[in-house]
Amino acid sequence: MNESINLKWLDKMAFEGEVNGFKIMLDASADVGGTEQGPRPKPMMMVALAGCTAMDVISILNKMRVEVDHFNVNVEGELTEEHPKQFIAMHITYEFKGKELPMDKLEKAVQLSQDKYCGVSATYRKVMKLTHEIKIL
Amino acid sequence: MNESINLKWLDKMAFEGEVNGFKIMLDASADVGGTEQGPRPKPMMMVALAGCTAMDVISILNKMRVEVDHFNVNVEGELTEEHPKQFIAMHITYEFKGKELPMDKLEKAVQLSQDKYCGVSATYRKVMKLTHEIKIL
């Protein structure tokens, strides 16, 4: 095993995670006994996806010498109604701002991440509907 | 879609996420152009898993009136060598400390989470080897 994280129980539903030497709080919402000290665990699956593909894309665009002023990755997810509640779909929106951005290169960078580099996308695609779009703002 | 997160590019490989109203930093390691301002994206998949099952277990033990003094969830993961690098296995270690802890109830709580409640476990189990163990310290 080549990766590891740790999660320490603090109190009620609050946990302190340690990831690559950084601390992260997780907590449940008040209606299920939490004290709102941190985000819920499940959306972290979407954070993993967004981060993985966002880093690919910014790094590929950098190699292509495409300069962007703003770059934002939004992920929406759909959970099942029944337990165990799990994601059945995620949609990634890549938003760019910049001067005369070349849409073909943005598309190429996103496609390379989705097809070749992003391991989180590769994993999720096997078990849910994974879609994406690109917006130039 | 009923869940969403956002990730905003800051500089180089640094991103600021927003999850349930909380901010989370993500960054790459220095050897791939990052500035080490936050954890890597991929281990967030393990954080999602640990948090999901940890909250189930502590909540079930609470209903069973089992009092634990310390509770810790460790997740180890194995990535493929080839791109796209993805998890092929994860191992969860549930660690408990407390006075005369009933192993059968700890096992029951963990099993309920793994079989019935934890949607992250249910998702990952479809695409990787997912194992666990319980330790009383």
In brief:
Chain A has 2 domains: 39 residues; 96 residues, GMP Synthetase, Chain A, domain 3 (2-Layer Sandwich), CATH 3.30.300. In chain A, 31% of the residues lie in helices and 36% in strands.
Name the average pLDDT of chain A.
97
> What top-tier CATH class of the largest domain in chain A fits best?
Alpha Beta
Quaternary structure state of the chains depicted: homodimer
* Poorly predicted regions of chain A: none
Give the helix/strand class of chain A: alpha+beta
How would you describe the overall organization of this protein?
The structure is a homodimer of 137-residue chains. Chain A has helices at residues 44-63, 103-117, 119-125, and strands spanning 3-11, 14-19, 22-26, 70-79, 87-97, 129-136. Chain A has 137 residues and is of the alpha+beta class. Chain A has two domains: 1-39; 41-136, K homology (KH) domain (GMP Synthetase, Chain A, domain 3, 2-Layer Sandwich), CATH 3.30.300.20. In chain A, strands 1-2-3 form a three-stranded antiparallel β-sheet, with no helix packed on it. In chain A, strands 4-5-6 form a three-stranded mixed β-sheet, with helices on one face. The mean pLDDT of chain A is 97. Chains A and B meet through strand 1, strand 2, strand 3, helix 1 and strand 4 of A and strand 1, strand 2, strand 3, helix 1 and strand 4 of B. Strand 4 (70-79) of chain A pairs antiparallel with strand 1 (3-11) of chain B, so a sheet runs across the interface.
Ordered list of secondary-structure elements with their pairings:
The structure is a homodimer of 137-residue chains.
Chain A: E1 3-11, E2 14-19, E3 22-26, H1 44-63, E4 70-79, E5 87-97, H2 103-117, H3 119-125, E6 129-136
Parallel strand pairs in A: 5-6
Antiparallel strand pairs in A: 1-2, 2-3, 4-5
